[in-house]
Design goal:
Blueprint (H helix, E strand, L loop, with lengths): L2 H39 L7 H37 L3 H36 L1
Helix pairs in contact: 1-2, 1-3, 2-3
């Protein structure tokens, strides 16, 4: 593969990574908004109010962690590219690894948020 082809593939990979980070941000932020909208229109009733409130709170915290992680991923990705571009490979690799950790935290936040939201919905039935 020629250096020009490698550069093109690197650029395309970066575009896909950016779109993936946008999707993670949208998933977590949108899920939190959807949950708040659902709760606003379906106020919990019955004896499970405490359980429902706790599950909703945990869900919102999880989505919040996912959203903050997604936003921070953009910064870490920028710093990764900055250090790679400046030739500081060891620093770039550390930022690169942190970016992967943030993506995992973001996905975990979304999964945990969905789990807690499911618990709240089931408890409200």
């Amino acid at each position: 593969m020629t250096p020009q082809e490698q550069q093109w593939h690197w650029g395309e990979g970066t575009k896909y990574a950016i779109e993936g980070m946008k999707a993670l941000l949208l998933l977590n932020g949108g899920a939190a908004i959807a949950l708040l909208t659902f709760i606003g229109s379906h106020a919990p009733s019955g004896s499970n109010k405490t359980l429902i409130a706790q599950a909703i709170g945990n869900s919102l915290i999880s989505f919040g962690v996912g959203t903050v992680s997604a936003a921070t991923t953009f910064v870490a990705g920028y710093l990764t590219q900055l250090y790679y571009g400046n030739g500081s490979t060891s620093t770039a690799i550390r930022w690169h690894q942190l970016t992967y950790v943030l993506v995992i935290v973001c996905v975990a936040g979304f999964i945990a948020g969905v789990y807690f939201a499911r618990s709240a919905v089931i408890a409200s039935l």
